[in-house]
Amino acid sequence: MAGIYIHIPFCRKKCTYCDFHFSTTFASYRTALLNQLRQEFQARIHELTAPIESIYFGGGTPSLLSPEELGSLLEGPKQYTGNQTVEITLEVNPEDLTETNLSAWQALGINRLSIGVQTMNDELLAWMNRNHRAADTRKGLNLLQQYAFLVSIDLIFGVPQQTEADVEELLALIDTYPIAHVSAYALTQEPQTLLHHRVKTGKEPQLNDEQQVAHYHLVEQALSTQGFEHYEVSNYAKPGKRAVHNGNYWKGKAYLGLGPGAHSFDGKSRRRWNVSNNAQYLKQQDWYEEEMLSADNQWNELWLTGLRTQHGVPMERIDALGGFRTDEQRMLEALIKQEKIHVQHNGYCLAQDHWLAADGISMQLFRAG
Ligand code: SF4
User: Fold this and answer.
1) Chain segment 238-297, per-residue pLDDT in tens
2) 57 pairs with which residues across the strands?
3) Are residues 349 and 227 in the same domain?
4) 17 in helix, strand or coil?
C-alpha cells in the first residue's frame, strides 16, 4: 500500500513557532503553482507501484484553496484509486470550517479533516499569531456535527504562558465533540522562527521542560480516560480511527510527496525530496534530489520511527536488515532489563512511560553508518 502527499505552500499569516515551508505572498503565482503540482503528479505517479491507500493535503494551509482548486488536484490521484474508498485528509484551519466548504469537501470525497485548533485560549492564539480564535473552532466543531468527516485535531502544549487550566479546557472540548483523533505536540523552538529569535534576544523565556512533561501527562491521562488509544508518541485515536497515512510513514511504506519541500520514499531505501522554494519549484524540470539509504541508515530509521509507535519494531524488519550485531544485542538486553523496552507483537516496543524519551533510547541502538 502507498500514500500520496500534496504540499500546499501557502498560508495567510506566519505563526510564531512554525518552520514548515510556505509563503504568505502567493497571489501572483497561485494558479501556476497548482498547475505545476498537477504536472508533477502526472510525471511521477509511475514511482508508486503499490495501490494507493491514502491521499493527504498538507501545508501550509490547504484549506485556503477553493473547493474547485482542491478538486482539480484530486482528479489525477482519483484515476488511480478507482471506486475504492481511500483515506483523503485535508489539513484545515478553523476559520475555513464553513458550511459551503464542508459540503464541497464532502462532495469531493475528502473524508478526514485534520484541524489546527492548537489551543482554546485567545491570548495564546494571538501570541502564536494564528489567524483564528476559539470562537471559530467552536463554531466549526458545531457545524461539523452535521457531516460525516472523521475529525482529528492538533493541539500544542508546553507554551510558556500556558496554564494547566488552559490544557484542561482543550481536553474538555475534545470530550464534548465527536473527535476521533488527536495529534498533541509539545511546542518546540526551531531555528529560523520568530519564537527562536525572541528567546535568543531575551524577549521570551526558554521553553520549560518540567511544564512540558506535566502537560504531556495531563493530555495522556485525560485522553486515555476519554477512550483514546495512545498509538504514537504524539498521536491518539479512538478504536479503529488511527490515521492510515501517517501510520504508513511509521511503518516504512512507500509514499509520493508532491510540491515544494515534499519528500518521497519508495518503501525500501530510496528517499527523494523537492526544493523548498516556490519560485524554484515553478521552474523545476528535474523534480527532486535523491539519496539511497545505506543498510545502517535503514536500521537507524527503523528504530527511530518504530519505537515511537505502539506496534514497535517488528522482528521481520530486523531480520530483513541482517538482525542484531553482538553489541546491539547486548544494548537491547540492557534496555529490556531496565524495563524500557518490552518484547511484544513479535518485535520490540518501548514501555509507555518512556515514550517521551523515545528518540534518545532509539539512538542507543543506532549504527555508526
Ligand atoms: S498555519 Fe500552519 S503551516 Fe501556516 S504558518 Fe501557521 S503553523 Fe505554519
Assistant:
1) 999 999 999 999 999 999 999 999 999 999 999 999 999 999 999 977 899 999 999 999
2) 6, 90
3) no
4) coil
Pairing of strands 263-265, 341-344: unpaired
Q: Which domain holds residue 322?
A: 297-369
For ligand 1, say whether the CB of 64 is within 6 Å of any of its atoms: no
Let me know if residue 274 belongs to a domain. no
187 and 316 fall within a common domain: no
Looking at the structure, tell me whether residues 19 and 151 fall in a common domain: yes
Cβ of 20 below 6 Å from ligand 1 = yes
Report the residue among 10, 20, 90, 154 best suited for mutation to probe ligand 1: largest number of ligand atoms under 8 A from its CB: 20
Q: How far is CA 179 from CA 50, 172, 238, 310, in A?
A: 31, 11, 8, 21
pTM over 0.85: yes
pLDDT digits (tens, 9 = 90+) for 138-190: 999 999 999 999 999 999 999 999 999 999 999 999 999 999 999 999 999 99
CA of 83 to the centre of ligand 1 (A): 33
